[in-house]
Amino acid sequence: MAVLRTEGLTKQFGGLTAVDDVDFELAGGELCSLIGPNGAGKTTFFDLLTGALDPTAGTVEVAVREDTDGERADGGSATGGSVGWIDITDAPPHATAQQGLHRSYQVTNVFPTSTVLENVRIAAQAHGDDSFRAWRNVNGFESYLAEARQVLERVGLGGKADAPAETLSHGEKRQLEVGIALAGDPEVLLLDEPNAGVSSESVDDIIALIEDVATDHAVLLVEHNMDIVMNVSDRIVVLNRGEVIADGPPDAVRDDPAVQEAYLGGYEPGDVGDDTDAEDPGDATEEGDAATDDPAGGGEPG
Amino acid sequence: MAISDPNPADEAAATPEDAVESDPTAVATPDTAWWRRYLEEHVAHVAVIALLAAYPLLHGALLASPVASEARMLLPNVETMTAVLYFGLFAMSFDFISGYTGYLSFGHAVFYGTGAYVVILAANGKLPLVPHTTPFMLLLLLGGVFAVLLALGIGVVSFRLTGVYFAMITLGFSQVAYVLVRDWGYLASSPRDGPFVVGPEGAMAPVFSVGVPFVDSLALDIGVLTGDSVVLGPLSLGTTEVSFYMVGIVVLVCYLLLQRVIHSPFGRVLIAIRENEERARAVGYDTFRYKLIAFAISGFFAAIAGGLFAGFRRSASPDNAFFFLVTGDALLASIIGGFGTLAGPLYGRLLDETIREFLSKEGTGGGLLPYLREVLPESILTVDIAGLTVQGAIETFLNGHGSLYLGLLFIGFVLFVPGGVLGYVRERLGGTVAQRVASRIRGGD
């Protein structure tokens, strides 16, 4: 059933505990959103999962991969109950990627002068066995090219295949971000604010993309726009100062008093936020009430 | 690049058999014969190779023509061109690691020097277990293997670092090697001046031949003094010309091998590392291993270049093989010719050597001053302008100052043509020269 789980995951930077004793489980096929105020530890949590950072304590494990496609779609495959677990706590990023954990980045992080197609093709090549072949021309490996073109169509960049990535618009770069993660044949997609800085016209495209990829992948989404979060998520996990303070379906989380206090404090008019995250409730108000007018908060360090 | 006569596809009539054996990856004209398509795709390569191959003959013909003085002034002589080839290969190997993965290998000379010293020491009987009569081609490979081992050792330590720290630690390693060979008496009678090919005590110094090992009829000796000369009908090639061709063949083979690696899936990973190593790791590449292997490949070909250099010159010294300025010259050639273009550094080196020879002090290879002495009347050369004669001005500001103008050129390239000669051409054409010429021949865009 579950494809990814953490136990007691903790990361301390000096005296600061960025992620605090997080027990988390992600089910196959689930779209789970991770929300929380600035500095709650969302991106750090991603870094711990993918191996970009090593945790101070705790474990990260992924389920043994099913090699047949399609089983992930419903989340409950035939062998669902009895899958084994692989410990990836100390695995470096390339190893977690090989285990099916792929992420997109909050700040666009692509291969700038390569073409859009090559950006995605190189990610597709990474899960094959051909990357040490140094004698055959790369164009002879057609499966990766075909896979890459398919992914580009899916993320809506089919017409931009031959453009260098750096020439794309910001919104297109966000789509490419997701495309690169998608091309890695992920078991779990970690999307770190795919909407960051995207203009309001393009937000709908990205939402559609998130919903689309969620049909055949388990997705963990970091997102600030509460409208999007409430609409697309199967489940919401709220982080505050590194701790999970709520975990459940959107409606339950919205009504949770602890969440109201920490994060959605400004969600109801008249509630004067007296907590330390004073700036963020203000943001949430704006986004919650008038999300479509507002390019969702860009460049926030998680 | 001078590409003329784009022979349009007038061979429309193709047989069905050709279509069967055609490569499915080729998009255009699948009905032409594979070799014809191959040539079409490589017209630019063929043209450059043909130009280089014709160079000694062309140069010889021009020197016997009415424009002899001009030709002698402007064109590098064949010996210099030979140096362009082997050093060009070294610069290409430098570009392979630095231009494609983005890791500036600032100690690359250590591999060049290793290749050179292996050849000479083996010929002098100073490499244990290696007979001094070992064919030159095997010595080149042996030098390459030494360099691979060295590269793996240096790489394992150095690739823990990135950016300028990587450049510094590789520089450190090569300087350690430089000091070692400079002070190690075993290597040469005067290690500071470096070894010469003298042969072991009591034996003849071996000659180095390029070709099939152990088959005399398929190999020719290289070296200005020791090489073979060849008479083919009306054509007579001196030792320098023969050396130029033989060195050229080895360089060409090495270039084609390097190019093949660049265009492979492995090569694409190297480019991804240069573009964004963090992301390359995140999509699943263990970048450390890729970098290490690329470094070893690069070291191998640097050593081949060094071996050719030693085989042609029959001597090497710490200062022209191991010193960090040797790497500096490769960097210069790469920047001018085009970083990350593989072939570019060869053109960069060609420009470099041409300018140096044009402004050389001795004037042995032709150049500006001997030419002016020849053409200008004495009265003009001695005209006094503000206390300086024309000849004096030339000697002060031009002669022997090739490096100075090269330095200015380098600055100009870094500022205004950051892609280098070949990078600029590719940018203008919108693809590699080979691709664009091929598509133009086919009547494409």
Automatic annotation (TrEMBL), chain A:
MF-aspect GO terms: ATP binding; ATP hydrolysis activity
InterPro entries, per database record: AAA+_ATPase, ABC_AA/LPS_Transport, ABC_transporter-like_ATP-bd, BCA_ABC_TP_C, P-loop_NTPase
GO CC field: plasma membrane
Biased segments, Acidic residues type: 271-292
Pfam families noted in UniProt: ABC_tran, BCA_ABC_TP_C
Domain of life: Archaea
This protein's UniProt keywords: ATP-binding, Nucleotide-binding, Transport
All residue ranges annotated as the ABC transporter domain in the record: 4-266
Region (Disordered): 246-302
Protein name, entry field: ABC transporter ATP-binding protein
Organism field: Haloglomus irregulare
